[in-house]
Amino acid sequence: MITKQELPLDATVAGETYEQCHFDYAQDTIKLDSVHFINCTFEQTDFKFSEWLDCTLTQCRLPNADFSNSLIYRTKFMNCQLTGVNFTRNRWHDSTVSDCQGMYLIMAESILKNCQFNETKLTDSSFQSVRVQSKLVFSECELSGADFTDTALNHVDISKANFESLTFTPSLIRGLKINSWQAAMLLGEMGVDVAD
Fold first, then answer.
1. Which of 5, 104, 112, 127 shows a CA-CA span of 20 to 30 A to 154?
2. Is residue 121 scored above 90 in pLDDT?
3. Does residue 191 carry a pLDDT above 90?
């Protein structure tokens, strides 16, 4: 384990754990494999076209970072600050986001396969034009104001999520997993008059 060091992000070593480290700008394209970050800070906010394979980020602050066009495979974000993070056009496989702050998070035009968000605040987040392969589960998440426009929801499970309103394309809702309370709310949003 490496603790309380300041080093360039592209100097990380595969399989290493970094705790309370500060990472300066990478000089090359970021390609990380099996790296664990605990309570680390990042000078860099531009992570475009990066690769994160089998990584874990715990208690890291990444507000408004740009991860567009990145690969995130078998990676975990735990108790991280992800407010306003741009994950546009990402490919996520077997990855999880747990107990994070993800308001205004953008996942637009991404491909998600077997991914899960747990106990994460995703208020006003964007999942527009996302292609879901396998499953996408939101468990105990706050999804109020989330936008799923142009996303086919047949592999999406929001039955354990909380929300006051969602934006979605009604013709693409088939197969969405919801609970009975959510059914009445979503029908109301589609203009159906649900009697008490």
1. 104
2. yes
3. no
Q: What pTM did the predictor assign?
A: 0.92
Q: Give the integer Cα–Cα distance in Å for 94 and 153.
A: 18
- Give Cα 72 to chain centroid, integer Å: 10
Residues 6 or more apart from 70 whose CB is under 8 A from it?
47, 48, 49, 50, 51, 52, 87, 90, 91
Mean pLDDT of all residues in 16-44: 95
Per the domain annotation, does 69 fall within a domain?
yes
CATH code, domain with 178: 2.160.20.80
Phi-psi region of 94 (alpha: psi -120 to 50; beta: other; left: phi over 0): left
Domain that residue 168 falls in: 2-189
Say if 156 falls within a structural domain.
yes
For residue 183, give both structure tokens. Answer: 């059914």
Rg (CA), the chain: 18
Residue 189 clears pLDDT 80, i.e. is over it: no
Tally of structural domains, the chain: 1
In a domain, 194, yes or no: no
Report the alpha-carbon distance of residue 44 to residue 104 in Å, rounded. Answer: 20
**DSSP code of residue 79:** S
